Amino acid sequence: MSGSVFGSMSAEAADIQTEGYTEENTEEYTQENSEEAAGDAQSGIVTTDGESSQGQQGISENSWRYQNGELITGVQYRARTVPYPNAWQKVNGVYMNSAGEPIDGAVSKGIDVSEHQGKIDWEKVKADGIDFAILRCGYGNNDKSQDDKTWAYNVSECERLGIPYGVYIYSYAKTTADAKSEAEHVLRLISGRSLTYPVYFDMEDNSTINVSAEVKGQMAQVFCDTISAQGFNAGIYANLNWWTTQLTSPVFENDSWSKWVAQYNVTCDYSDPYDIWQCTSTGKVSGISGNVDVNFWMNENTSGGNSGGKKSGTTLAVRRGNEYHFKYSLADGAADLIINYGYKNDEILVGDWDGDGIDTLCVRRGNTYYFKNSLSGGMADVVVNYGRSSDEVYVGDWNGDGIDTLCVRRGNTYYFKNSLADGTADSVVAYGKRDDIVLTGDWNGSGTDTLCIRRGNTYYIKNSLADGQADVTVPYGRASDHIVVGDWDADGIDTLCVRRSNEYHIKNSIESGGADQIIVYGRSNDVVYAGIWN
To answer: Are strands 90-91 and 482-486 parallel, antiparallel or unpaired?
Structure first.
C-alpha cells in the first residue's frame, strides 16, 4: 500500500541487478483535475448521526478514479511526452519515478487490488519485486453481498506465499452509523487473519462530497476506533485534493492513524506525514492482466511511520535450509513472514543495506556479495566483490550514516569499508587477539557500530573503532552460551541475548545479572538471525 532470489537461478542470472519494465503511459495526476472531478460530482444526501443512510444494493463506485463502477483511464491525467522506461522500478537499489528521478524516502513497493484486477497470479506478482499488497475486502456496509469477489482468493494467496498485506474498504458512509457498519464489515472478513499493514478507510466516493468536514471526521473516528479496538492498525485513504480540502477536521491529525495519499505525479506533494504514496494507476506487474495501482511505503523520516514515529526493536528470524521465518515481535507463535532465499548452504549476512531502517539479507559466495534491499523475491539489488573468499566478515554501520557495510577480519586486524563497493578499506584497526570471538554492535547509542571481544563469558566492549583498552567489561551468561546481539527494546543501544536451545534470555542493558525477558521461539537446531524486519 511490503523472498526468494537465488534458489533456482544460475549464478550468471544472479549477477543481473535489476529487471525493468516499460510503462508506456506514464502520467501525472494533477490537483486541478481532481478538483474538477470533485466539482462535477453528485451532491448526494447528507445525513447526521443515527441510523445508517445506506440502501446499497446495486451501488457503484463514482469518484475521481471510478465512473459507475468502472476504472477511469485517460480522463484525469496529463501524459508525459517522454516516459522513463523504468518508471516505478528499482534501479541500482533506488526506486525511480516516471521522470527518471529517485523517489526520496521510498522503502518498499506495493500494489492495491480488488475484483477489478480479476484473478491474479500471486506467485508471478511476488517474483516481480512486489513487497506488499493492500487488498480490497469489500465496499459499504456489512452485507455479504458487498464483499469483494476476489477477497478470499487474494488473502489466501498472500498468506500462502508470505506476501505482507493490509486491507481497505471502499466507503459510502454518510453517517457514523454507516462508518461503524463498514468497520464491522472489515472485521468480519479479517478475523483470524495475519495483517502486516493497516486497515484503510477509503474516502473518495462522490456521493459523500457534501457531507460536512465535521461529520467526515466523526465517521473516520468511529471507523478507526472500531478497527483499533480489535488490535489492528487503522488508516485513511484519499487523494491529495481530498486530504487538503475535504478531510480538514482536526481528528485527521491523529498520529496513530496511517495516511495513504493518492497523487498521480512524479512526486507526492502532500505536506503532512504520510505512510503510503499511490503514484500511478497504470502500473504493469507480472501476474496481473492490465493496469494496477502502484504504491510506495515511505520511510520514517518522510512519513512518520505507521507506528506513529516509534522505532521498532530487534526481533528474531530462524533459518531452515533456504527458508527464513521472520518474527515481528519478541514472542512465541507463528512467523509473521516466511520467504525462500538463496541456497541452503549459502552464508548469510544481515544488515540495513540501503538505510531504510529495515534489515534484509545478503548472500555471500566466496568474495562476492549479493545484497537484497527488501524481504522479497527478485534479483539482487547490489552485487559487490570485496576482500578474499577466506576472509572472516562482519557487518555494521561503521561511520554512523545509517547504512550497514562490511568489515574484513584477518587475524586481529580489521578492514572497514564505509560503502557497498569494492576497493581499499576506509580504515584499518588492530584490536584484541587473532583467536578472539568478536561481536559487533552500537554499544553506547552513538549511531556507530564498534567491536566487542568475547572470552569465555566475559565481554570487552570498545565504543570506538580504535585499538587500546576496552571501555566496558561485563561478565554475562556461560562460556558455552550462543550469543545474539540486538537492540531489543528500541532504545538505540545494542545488548546481548543468550540462546539456550530454543530459549532466548534477553538483556536490555550492558551489565551482568538476570535476563529482562525470556522467550521461546523455533527449534533447538534452527539457525538464528537478529534484525529489524518490519
So the answer is: unpaired
Other C-beta atoms closer than 10 Å to the C-beta of 295 total 30
Distance from the first to the final alpha carbon of the chain: 14
C-alpha cell at 262: 493518492
Backbone angles phi, psi at 417, to 5 degrees: -115, 130
Distance CA 116, CA 290 (A): 10
All cell numbers assigned to 372? 537484497
Rounded to the nearest 5 degrees, what angle is found at the Cα of 398, between the Cα atoms of 393 and 401? 130
20 pLDDT above the threshold of 70? no
Grid coordinates of 169: 474498504
Sequence-separated (6 or more) residues with CB below 8 Å from residue 159: 165, 193, 194
d(CA 40, CA 46): 17
Burial class (CB in 10 A: 0-12, 13-18, 19+), 274: buried
CA 345 to CA 337: how far, in whole Å?
21
Whether residue 232 contacts residue 202, with contact meaning beta carbons closer than 8 Å, is answered with: no
Q: Is 523 exposed, middle or buried (0-12, 13-18, 19+ CB in 10 A)?
A: exposed
Q: Is 333 left (phi over 0), alpha (psi -120 to 50) or beta?
A: left
Q: Which three cell numbers stand for residue 70?
A: 468502472
User: Which residues lie across from 383 on neighbouring strands?
Assistant: 370
> Distance between CA 483 and CA 465 in Å, rounded?
21
Which pLDDT value is given to residue 79? Answer: 36
Could you tell me how many residues make up the chain? 534
pLDDT value for 100: 92
Interstrand relation of 234-239 and 199-202 (parallel, antiparallel or unpaired) = parallel
What is the DSSP secondary structure assignment for residue 252, as one 8-state letter? G
Inter-residue contact 522 to 530 (CB < 8 Å): no
What φ, ψ does residue 20 adopt, rounded to 5°?
-85, 165
pTM check: above 0.70? no
d(CA 27, CA 37): 17
Query: What torsion, rounded to 10 degrees, do the Cα atoms 235, 239, 240, 243 define?
Result: -50
Three-class SS state of 291:
coil
pLDDT tens digits for 430-489?
999 999 999 999 999 999 999 999 999 999 999 999 989 999 999 999 999 999 999 999
409-445 pLDDT, tens digit per residue, is 999 999 999 999 989 999 999 999 999 999 999 999 9
Taking only Cα atoms into account, the Rg of the chain, rounded to an integer number of angstroms, comes to 25
